[in-house]
Design a protein that fits this description.
With 193 residues, the chain is α/β, with parallel strands linked by helices. The termini are far apart.
């Protein structure tokens, strides 16, 4: 029996934070051993209203079905108000572990991405938990170029806009060659404008 892809909202109670919400995209006809994509939203998605998470970018495209049939689970947690992803990273990892076990996800195929605040979160959480993720793809995220050695054990593909006035693309542009010269595997896509 064919099953359609779905998006469900859930609440997770972690040991670090009492409750926080998340969306979970379940692919069409899911099987065991599928990959998991973890998507961290930008600053405007913070709070306790899960509709904020689906108000833009990948979560919105999944929710309105303009992007379909992705052969992976996609986890989209919501960062509480006045917090950042690195502050709640242990709770996010706990949620990931819970989803991986419950959905029988391939633990060697967990990728991390996000934009703006979530791009910065992808850099930070990816470095702190590089053994969990198969790769990271920060979008318009800020990163300290002094931390290049933290990314030598995880493939990185960063994406920035050259004229971004909210998150300076310079830190991503500067760190990629430093990661590679330290023995890592990083690349960057710069969108003009």
């Amino acid at each position: 029996v064919d099953t359609l892809a779905s998006m469900t909202q859930n609440i997770y109670t972690s040991t670090g934070i009492t409750n926080f919400g998340y969306w979970l995209y379940t692919p069409k006809n899911p099987t065991d051993d599928m990959p998991l994509i973890v998507y961290l939203h930008g600053g405007s998605g913070r709070g306790s209203d899960l509709n904020l998470v689906i108000s833009g970018s990948l979560p919105q495209f999944l929710y309105d079905s303009s992007v379909r049939d992705i052969p992976a689970y996609i986890l989209m947690p919501q960062c509480p108000s006045n917090k950042t992803w690195d502050v709640i990273e242990s709770s996010v990892i706990e949620l990931i572990d819970n989803i991986v076990a419950g959905k029988k996800i391939n633990s060697k195929k967990i990728s991390l991405t996000g934009h703006s605040l979530g791009g910065t979160g992808s850099w930070n959480v990816g470095a702190a938990y590089s053994s969990i993720f198969s790769c990271i793809a920060p979008l318009s995220g800020s990163v300290s170029i002094n931390n290049a050695s933290n990314y030598t054990k995880i493939p990185v593909w960063a994406f920035v806009g050259s004229a971004d006035t909210i998150v300076d693309p310079g830190s991503s542009e500067a760190i990629v060659p430093l990661i590679n010269s330290a023995g890592g595997n990083a690349r960057i896509k710069i969108y003009e404008g």
